[in-house]
Amino acid sequence: MDMLFQALASASRRQILDIVRDKPGCSVMDVCRHFDVSRIAVMKHINVLEKADLLISEKQGRTRRLYFNAVPIQMIHERWTTEYSALWAGRLTEFKRRVESRQP
């Protein structure tokens, strides 16, 4: 999970994920067009995202096609929100019950 949070910590990498999410199968060059940095700099970001399993790349001839993998983000969501959602839902239900029992 550390690699995942590290990958998501960069605004440029989050922008790359947004681009790939909106255009599945886009090429690395398609992504590069959105940035004012070198192709090598964008590739470094893409490599970090691939290591965190957020991007999946597929070679088609000389072109690398990129796909967004939402599974790691879903795992974070489930780990952090499901537990806390149940806790707070229970507390809010108890609060509601107490408030309603005091009304005439």
Uncertain residue ranges:
none
Shape: elongated
Number of discrete domains: 2
How is the CATH topology of the largest domain named? Arc Repressor Mutant, subunit A
What is the makeup of the main sheet? 3 strands, antiparallel
Number of helices: 5
The total of beta strands comes to 3
CATH architecture of the largest domain: Orthogonal Bundle
The helix content is 55-70%
Task: Please give a structural write-up.
The N and C termini lie far apart (51 Å). Helix 1 (2-8) packs antiparallel against helix 4 and helix 2 packs across helix 4. The chain is built from 5 helices and 3 strands; from the N terminus they run H-H-E-H-H-E-E-H. It folds into 2 domains: 1-69, Arc Repressor Mutant, subunit A (Orthogonal Bundle), CATH 1.10.10.10; 70-104. By secondary structure, it is α+β, with helices and mostly antiparallel strands. Helices cover 66% and strands 13% of the residues.
